[in-house]
Each structure stands twice: as C-alpha cells, then as structure tokens.
Design a protein that fits this description.
The protein is of the alpha/beta class and 460 residues long. The chain is built from 17 helices and ten strands. Strand 7, helix 15 and strand 8 form a beta-alpha-beta unit. It is elongated, with a radius of gyration of 31 Å. The two termini are 50 Å apart.
Length: 460
C-alpha cells in the first residue's frame, strides 16, 4: 500500500497533502510512492530527520534560510526518466543534457547553501559532471555543445562562418552535415561518460526528494500543531486527538472544536451515541492518525502512543459498488466479507466500521453486529464499531459519546447552534441499551410537537 492509493479516497489525508509546502516534482513523486510502513526503525529514522530540521532550522515565518532552500528545491527538474536513459544505450539530446546540467547546478547550490547544517543533507562531489557539461566553466545552466569538446568541431564551425557567397552554398550544406555528425558523436560520448554517474544521479534525486518531503512535513507540523508519536507493542493512546480537516471547517464557522482522548488495545470497541454526536469523526480521526504515523508524519494530538499495524480496513460511508447496481446493504456486506477474508490471513490490522448493518431491519442488523464483533474479538483484532443498536452482547469495551447529556436550561437550540452544546468526549458505558436521544434532539430543534408526542407514544 502506497500513499497515492490511500490519498484517492481519504479526504482528511488529502487535506494534509494539500497543505504540505512541497516545492519539487521529485518531492511530490517521492511522497506519492512512499509506502505504508510497519517498521518502527524506518519511521523513527524519518521522524528523527524532521526533528533535526525543526530544531536546527528554527522553523518560523520568514526564515531566510528556509525560504532560500525552498526556492532552490522549486528549481529542481524532474529528471528520473532522463537518468534511466543513461543505462539504456540512448544518446541524450540537448534537452536531456540541459536537464542534467541544470539539475546538478541546482543540487550543487543546495549543497553549498546547506554546508552549515551537517545533518540536513549529504550530497556527493558533482565536479566531474559539471566539468563534463560545462567545460568552459561558464557557470551557466543552459547546455551548449562547446567548441572545446572537439578540435574538429571548432575548425568546421570556423569554416562555416567564412562562407558567405551563393556559390559556396553546396560547400555550406556539406559543412553543416559534418558539423551535425560531429555534434552527434559528442552527444554520444557525453552520454557514455555520464552513464558512469548513473548511481550518483539517482541517489541525488532520492536525497533531494527526501529533503523536500521531510522539510515540508516539519513545516506542516508547526503550522498544524502536530506532535511526534511514541510507539507501543500493545497500546494505542491519544490525548487531545483532533482531525485537522474537521477542525478547519469548524473554526471557519467561528465554532470551537473539541479534541478527544482515547486509549485502546487489541480488542473490540463498541461506540454508541446520538446522531450528530461525532461517532463517524472519531473513526475518521483514528484512521487519519494511524495513516499519518505509518507514513512518517507527526500526529494531530497533544500526545500519542501508537501500535503499528500492517493495514487499515475502514468501512465508513457509501461504496462504489452502489454505482454498480448493488444496494447499500449488499455493498456493505461485500465489504464486510472482504474484511473477514483479509483478517483471517493478516490479523495485524486496524478495523473501523461505521453504523454496521444500519440499512437492514433492526433484528437482523443487531445479529450481524454481534456476529462481526464476535469474529473480530476471536481474532484479537483492534477494532471499532459504531452502532445505534441496543443489545450488543459480549466481552467488548463499550464507549459512548456524551452528546447532549447535560442540563441546557432555557437555551433555544437550532440546527446552527446545536453543535456548540454537544459534548464529543468518550466515556465508558457498559449499559447494553443505547441511549434514546433522537426524539430529545428533534424536540430541542423545534420539530413539530404533535409529531414528537406521537413518536413518544409509539416508543412507549
């Protein structure tokens, strides 16, 4: 699983990516191809790099060094395909030779710029390549086949300059063809000589792309108040966890965003609570934090301990299968079936399921919830299931979103202000009955009183 695959359908991760101040095409490709890592050593290495950047560069607004570094990174050309041509017996054309020359000139500037920061980036000596592509020491990044490449070429060009008369036209064409032939020989020679530096060029691309990505992640961590996670063999724990996408939307409306605390181990967690209480946001926040941790980002939480997994399976919202003619229920059941088949082979998975079996009748829906929870529990899968069904029985951890569980006095609620009075924190709740809050919320929102009374009579 790589970053681009997850990014496609995950809006919260898209928000993170869109706010990354990446400067180069090679940086964008690098992060898109980065793997969802379950190696703590690999993740820690990247986080150490970001820590070094934060501490040594003193990241802040209008940091002159960082601005200069980002400017040079933005000038880096996207040359991986050109580099691959070096080992394909291809004669590079003038554009490709220019791309390599310009890339190396920029890389050399980044090397010089970073010389006071020993651990920022380690780049090799580029002088052999510079000498090849800039034999006249012009220090100009544009590429030209200089006379100094060949005495024969220099002589042919001198002869061509002397030809002025119409009578010498045939001679001019002959010289032009000879010049073209000699220039081709020079390109061939340059391509062969540059091929010796294939590994150096390829490694330089990777190191510069890594610098762009990790610098961007470090800057983002300061802008969004992200913090470095610790890693645990058993427990995942978040203090003050938040979802940056949801937080930005809430704060645009001048509302207060409420962060949450949550801790879990390898067990089934059942979450209940009223509609509008934020159960889905809890799942999406857990999903985002796990992805960010294992793609080597700092975490949207004040403090976090994270147990690494091999995969995340989230069944949240509608599925593309509905567009292929399947009902919501059929689509959900196919996804559940795929999930069960997967966890039987790969149990080190985080499973997140929102409102399981909500589109079928309550009796069978409850039976399905109990069956799925039982299978996840037996497989010792860390998992979360949100539900409105009462009667979920088993040795599961049960949590409830507090919701409107407080005295609102004479506050007049409406669809625009109700979120201000919601308590999104999670509490332990071992009651098998899900709290009935739908009618209370409808009443508080000013829904027709007669409708509410009839509904209450039917409920009783």
């Amino acid at each position: 699983m790589i970053f681009r695959q997850v990014l496609k359908d995950n809006k919260a991760l898209q928000f993170i990516y869109q706010n990354l101040p990446l400067q180069s095409a090679i940086g964008r490709r690098y992060i898109m191809d980065s793997k969802f890592s379950n190696s703590q050593e690999e993740i820690e290495k990247n986080l150490n790099y970001q820590d070094y950047i934060i501490d040594s560069l003193e990241l802040k607004h209008n940091n002159e060094f960082v601005n200069s570094l980002q400017f040079q990174l933005s000038k880096l050309r996207d040359i991986p395909l050109t580099i691959e041509n070096l080992i394909s017996d291809v004669i590079l054309d003038d554009i490709e030779l220019f791309e390599i020359k310009d890339f190396i000139f920029t890389a050399n500037k980044i090397k010089e710029l970073s010389s006071n920061y020993e651990k920022l980036i380690n780049l090799d000596d580029f002088s052999p390549i510079i000498n090849l592509l800039d034999p006249d020491d012009t220090k100009i990044p544009s590429f030209y086949i200089y006379d100094s490449y060949s005495e024969k070429l220099a002589e042919l060009r001198k002869q061509q300059k002397k030809i002025n008369s119409e009578e010498e036209k045939d001679l001019d064409e002959k010289l032009w063809m000879e010049i073209q032939s000699e220039e081709t020989n020079i390109r061939k020679d340059l391509s062969q000589k540059l091929s010796k530096y294939y590994n150096l060029l390829k490694e330089t691309v990777l190191r510069l792309a890594s610098l762009d990505v990790n610098l961007s992640k470090a800057i983002l961590s300061k802008e969004l108040n992200l913090n470095r996670a610790k890693f645990s063999d058993k427990t995942t724990k978040y203090n003050e966890l938040f979802n940056p996408l949801v937080k930005s939307v809430v704060e645009e409306k001048k509302d207060n965003y409420q962060k949450i605390n949550i801790e879990y181990k390898k067990n089934v967690n059942i979450i209940t609570g009223a509609n509008m209480a934020g159960k889905t946001v809890v799942l999406k926040s857990l999903e985002l934090a796990q992805y960010m941790a294992q793609f080597s980002f700092f975490i949207p939480a004040e403090y976090s301990e994270i147990h690494l997994v091999d995969n995340i399976i989230s069944i949240i919202g509608d599925d593309q299968n509905e567009l292929e003619g399947l009902s919501s229920f059929a689509s959900e059941m196919m996804r559940i079936n795929d999930m069960i088949a997967y966890i039987k082979k790969y149990p080190k998975t985080l499973v997140l399921i929102d409102e399981l079996a909500r589109t079928t009748n309550p009796v069978e829906g409850l039976a399905i919830v109990n069956a799925v929870a039982s299978m996840l529990n037996s497989a010792d899968i860390p998992s979360f299931i949100t539900t409105h069904y009462s009667g979920v029985s088993g040795d599961y951890r049960k949590l409830r979103v507090v919701g409107l569980d407080r005295d609102l006095h004479n506050i007049e609620l409406n669809q625009n202000n109700i979120n201000k009075y919601m308590d999104y924190s999670l509490i332990e709740d071992n009651n098998e009955k899900v709290p009935h809050e739908a009618l209370r919320i409808a009443s508080l929102l000013g829904v027709d009183k007669e409708l509410i009374e009839i509904a209450k009579q039917n409920l009783n």
